[in-house]
Structure formats: structure tokens, C-alpha cells
Design goal:
There is one protein chain. This protein is mainly beta. It is 6% helix and 63% strand. The chain is elongated, with a radius of gyration of 19 Å. The chain starts with 7 loop residues before the first helix and ends with a strand.
């Protein structure tokens, strides 16, 4: 569990680095597939409910991206992942619940294509997070725990390191706005502001 900031500083650095290299074309109609591992790291300490402060643990899962270039250097990307699993902790009590979630995210990305083997990119998009398989544990064992689905904005910044004409290694960071109502036995106890930073490394194949 970490407190993190949206990747504005990283995005600014990427843009500056990109301006230092002459641009080359990224063709309209190209598409890529990315296979990676993503770490979801929720922010800690900003979710207070009627039963106390709630924190959500980190989790790592496989990720999949598909991006279609609608114009030179501009792509529309869909991010999917294997369901993430999180322990939910009540400060002073310990683990009180667990949940799974799917975070599909659609983003518009701009790639600063240039004559080097490193291609920076930035993007903004929309996230939908679906929570499921919630259950109470510990002091909430047997309780009906539920977390509402969430819609929120997302931002991404990263680098592609070309290793062949079609393949690249990718390192990226995302910020996702996730805020959901939490209910115990049907009664709303407050909102959980997860707002995670998502760190992802992947192999990306261009078609």
C-alpha cells in the first residue's frame, strides 16, 4: 500500500525527451498486442468509513493490451487483465474483507515516434472497474460485504524500447480514479478511494 501521485512529472519528462529527437511516422492502420504483468498499488490512508479507515493491499496480475492506430502516432488502446485480488484492511483491526476486480480501460494515446529505438507515449482515457467475489473475513466473517462498480478517468505515460522491427519492451505507469461505495449487510458505510497507480511491464508486438 503506497501513497502515489499521478504520473504528471513522468509525462512531462517523456515529452521533453521526445522533442530532442526527430520524429518518424507511426502508420495509421497499424495495431499492437501487449502481454505483460501489472502491479495495482492503491493509495493508502484516504478512505474513512463509519467503521474506521480502510486500506487496500497491492496485487500483481497478467495484463493484455490492444491498440489500433487511428492516425499517425495516435492510437486507441484497450487494457484488460486477469482479475486482481485484494485484501481489505481496517486500520487497528487487520484484514476484514477480500475482493476481486476487473479494470478495463480505454485510452487515447500519442506516441512520440522518432529515429531512436525508444518511443515515449502519453495518454488519457476512461476506466470501468467491476468488483466481484467480495466476502467478509476476520471480524466481518459471515457478513455480506459489497463494493459498487466504479467509473473514472485514467492517465498513462511510458516508454517502448524496440528490440526488433516488430517487437518492443514496454514500461509504463498509469493513474486510475477509482472511488466506490462499500456496504455491509446492505448498509452503506462510506466510500473507498482506491485511486491506484498501476505499474506495467510488457512485451509489445506490432502488426
Amino acid at each position: 500500500m503506497k501513497t502515489a501521485t499521478p504520473p504528471l512529472a513522468l509525462a512531462a519528462g517523456i515529452a521533453i525527451a521526445a522533442l530532442a529527437s526527430p520524429a518518424s511516422a507511426t502508420d495509421k492502420g497499424d495495431f499492437t498486442l501487449g502481454f505483460g504483468l501489472g502491479l495495482v498499488s492503491p493509495q493508502a490512508g484516504n478512505s474513512t468509513t463509519t467503521v474506521g479507515q480502510i486500506n487496500v493491499d497491492d496485487n500483481i496480475r497478467p495484463t493484455l493490451t490492444f491498440e489500433y492506430f487511428v492516425a499517425d502516432k495516435v492510437g486507441v488502446e484497450v487494457l484488460a487483465a486477469w482479475p486482481f485480488e485484494h485484501d481489505i484492511n481496517l486500520v487497528g483491526t487487520g484484514r476484514v474483507a477480500k475482493t476481486k476486480h476487473l479494470p478495463p480501460t480505454v485510452s487515447i494515446k500519442y506516441h512520440f515516434a522518432n529515429q531512436s529505438s525508444i518511443t515515449p507515449f502519453v495518454g488519457v482515457g476512461l476506466n470501468y472497474t467491476h468488483f466481484f467475489d467480495e466476502s467478509g473475513v476476520g471480524t466481518l466473517a459471515g457478513a455480506n460485504v459489497s463494493i459498487d462498480d466504479s467509473w473514472g478517468v485514467a492517465a498513462v505515460a511510458g516508454l517502448d524500447f524496440a528490440i526488433s522491427d516488430r517487437g518492443a519492451l514496454r514500461a509504463e505507469m498509469r493513474y486510475i480514479d477509482i472511488e466506490s461505495d462499500v456496504k455491509i449487510n446492505g448498509a452503506t458505510i462510506g466510500k473507498v478511494k482506491i485511486d491506484p497507480v498501476v505499474l506495467n511491464v510488457a512485451y509489445v508486438l506490432k502488426f
